[in-house]
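>> received
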Amino acid sequence: MILADKDLKKALRQKRIIFRPTLDLKTQLGSCSVDLRLGTSFSVFKHSRFPYIDPHDPKLSSDMMESLTVAVGDKFILQPGDFVLAVSIESFKLPNNLLARIEGRSSLGRLGIVVHSTASIFEPGWEGVAVMELGNMGRMPVALYPGMRIAALTFEELSSPAEVPYSKKRGAKYLKQKTPTASKIAEESS
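>> returned
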């Protein structure tokens, strides 16, 4: 069951779901979702320096990606066909019986902007910022501004609390991330 606005307000009051900084419910609360704002940190592929991506290469994040910071009030131009990692301003913490899903906002989708490729679920026990997989599916560059509402989270109740929430998983690679962390797939055993 997806939480409605009334349920979300209650979960926030009871600190069942925790956001930092505190949400502005007038602008960020929808009928069944919470909007996230775009942060200032981005990770981009150095695609002109490497012929391909090898998911087994542990140097993927350090060698193939570059971190960029965009000042508040400035813009990040997402080129057509480009793919970058970006973070939300908000970090959030989930209890062991809720999951969150991230989706793009319709107004940006109509410009060709997608906010996730496949990673839409934040497991029960999640804590950290949302790292978004931003892509421009359109034919024109699009300016993205730190602080703009970029995505929406919905929250779903589990049938029972997770026995092993993300925060207790062995190898929870992205727990408490604060920056747009590159893929850590090379850490997985084959």
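>> Residues 80 and 140 are 6 Å apart (CA to CA).
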